[in-house]
Amino acid sequence: MRRWLRQHRYAIAVSVRRLLAQPFSSLANLLVIALTLTVPILGASILITAQPVARQLSVSPEMTIFLSPSADADASAGIAQRLKADFADDVASVKVVKRDEAMAKLRANPNWAQALAALPSNPLPDAVVVTLHEHPDLARHADTLATQWRQWQQVDLVQHDSAWVQRLEAILRFARIGLVLLAIGVALVVLATVFNTVRMQALTQREEIGVARLVGATESFVRRPFLYLGALTGLTAGLAAIALAYFALMPLNTALARLAQSYGTSLALRLPDAVSLALAVVVVAILGALSARWSVTRNTRF
Question: Residue ranges of the ABC3 transporter permease C-terminal domain (predicted)?
Fold first, then answer.
């Protein structure tokens, strides 16, 4: 066990010395990988921030059932009772808005008062405002309910806002797919950069590797420092990417706060949770080690 630990400590020390031996080259490689990793981290931050906003906007949408002008005075109450009885699993709340009540609210608005004063009678119909429960496919479910309710007697129009909900869900779905493709691209950049770095190191240490083999060094002993070199490169670049993303979010949040304030709300971008970030760093380190193994296997056959 002590021998195994001593060999790994030696490999780590050798890999660190090789990184420090060429500071400018190592720093350039780390910077390339870190900047590349920063992009999907920022994309994930935007997506994480957008998802709660989307859920908040799309949860419990209101649908308005407008009755025909010739409907009975008690028709709205009958429709409200039917909704509560037949659609209890779909409907969260039902509110009846009488035509006189709606007209009174409009007349209370000074922008509409003069225009409404010229009307001989109240043209507004009775309405029933329905708030729906959450649903996995809320937009499509709302369309299905609207189609059913339009067929009821004394119902003239069913108005709901599913179109923009569908667009918002499509945008988020597009963003998720784009983020996955971006992560794949980042993984390829990490593999290519580490592969080239280890290749250059292997060619530089060509004579040293040959001497080590002559004195009986095993292939695992020869390869182990290069594996740690790739893993340390990925680990350091991952941590640097998180730091870059953190500092990049500061000016972005300042600009976003001003924009959100103009709409009377507050919004801020935040990094993914610590577990996700730690997992991402581990994955990058593993990719670096795998790329290093591939490179050292191909470039030390001499």
Answer: 181-296
Residue 244: pLDDT band (50, 70, 90) is: very high
Domains and CATH numbers, the chain: 7-56+166-299 (no CATH), 62-160 (3.30.70.3040)
Token pair belonging to 240: 């640097």
Query: What Cα–Cα distance (Å) separates residue 79 from each residue in 143, 151, 155, 177, 270?
Result: 18, 12, 9, 43, 45
Q: Which two structure tokens, joined as six digits, stand for 283? A: 């994955």
As given in the structure block, the two tokens for residue 245 are 């993303």
230: which 2 tokens?
């790739």
Do residues 159 and 119 lie in contact, with contact meaning Cβ atoms separated by under 8 Å? no
Answer for the pair 20, 220: CB distance below 8 angstroms, yes or no: no
d(CA 63, CA 76): 14
Q: What is the mean pLDDT of residues 90-94?
A: 84
- What distance in Å separates the CA atoms of residue 107 and residue 113, rounded to the nearest whole number? 5
Q: Is 129 helix (H, G, I), strand (E, B) or coil?
A: strand
Name the one residue in this structure whose structure tokens are 């001989």. Answer: 120
Predicted pLDDT of residue 54: 58
* Whole-angstrom distance, CA of residue 212 vs CA of residue 13: 17
Count CA atoms closer than 13 A to 2's CA, side-chain side.
Answer: 0
Determine the length of the chain.
302
CA distance 37 to 163: 35
Outline where the chain has alpha helix (H). 2-21, 23-58, 75-86, 99-108, 110-117, 138-150, 162-204, 206-214, 219-262, 274-299
